[in-house]
Write a structure and sequence with these properties.
Largest sheet: 9 strands, antiparallel
Mean pLDDT: 84
Shape: globular
Oligomer: single chain
Distance between the termini: 41 Å
Order of helices and strands: EHHEHEHEEEEEHE
Low-confidence stretches: 94-131
Number of strands: 9
Helix content: 10-25%
């Protein structure tokens, strides 16, 4: 089973319609979970104004992600029905039909179909619609994402997703949001922080914090989090 690109964005309504401050939303996901935590890919800064360049580590510890999703898979009743938002900024080598041109072409074609420039008694001029329509996006303040659905185990296989051919290449993209259909938990990883936010049940978050293979710490999404300059 592979991922599917979703042109129907209804599954992301709980994100789009959230009234949280946008930075809290994109860093921790929607409100309503019993507990929250941060998965750190770099250690937290130890002094104000510290730069990421001053951190003495070899690389970001994104190798923790497989372990995180392994544990999360066991904490949902819908592991084969999960959703993934991928930030549009990861897209590259766009197809010839970009968002602006694509929508303009569709609108123009629709105008000609509904109001054809034809003299009375003549058949309306036929208009061919673009063969590849631009991918619809989940939009929140300052961010826009493509939405995919499928098994949690298929995370990251965006480029082979059904209904995606002809769109941007996303081979190196990380998901900005991940959640199962039953909303048992949510992972949010914005492009700026050195960590990903996790919301879920108290037992789940406690399990993640206690796991020796993960650098997870408890968090209060309503307060300012550690950040590098």
């Amino acid at each position: 089973m592979t991922l599917i690109y979703c042109s129907d964005l209804a599954a992301a309504d709980w994100i789009v319609r959230s009234t949280l401050p946008w930075q809290q939303l994109v860093c921790f996901g929607p409100a309503g979970f019993d507990a929250y935590a941060r998965l750190r890919f770099l250690p937290d800064p130890v002094r104000p104004g510290q730069s990421e360049n001053d951190v003495e580590v070899e690389d970001w510890r994104t190798d923790q992600l497989p372990r995180l999703f392994e544990l999360l898979e066991a904490r949902t009743t819908t592991p084969d029905n999960c959703y993934f938002c991928v930030w549009e900024g990861f897209g590259h080598a766009e197809s010839a039909t970009d968002d602006g041109a694509g929508h303009a072409a569709v609108d123009n074609a629709q105008d000609q179909i509904e109001r054809p420039d034809a003299r009375p008694g003549l058949a309306p001029t036929s208009v061919a619609l673009p063969s590849v329509l631009p991918a619809r996006k989940v939009e929140v303040p300052h961010r826009a994402y493509w939405l995919f659905r499928g098994p949690l185990t298929e995370i990251g296989t965006w480029d082979s997703a059904e209904a995606w051919p002809g769109q941007s290449r996303l081979d190196a993209a990380q998901p900005a949001f991940v959640w199962p259909a039953d909303h048992a938990w949510c992972v949010a990883w914005d492009v700026d922080p050195h960590w990903a936010g996790i919301g879920g049940g108290t037992l789940l978050v406690s399990q993640l914090i206690a796991d020796p293979l993960l650098d997870v710490v408890p968090a209060d999404p309503s307060i300012e989090q550690p950040s590098y300059q």
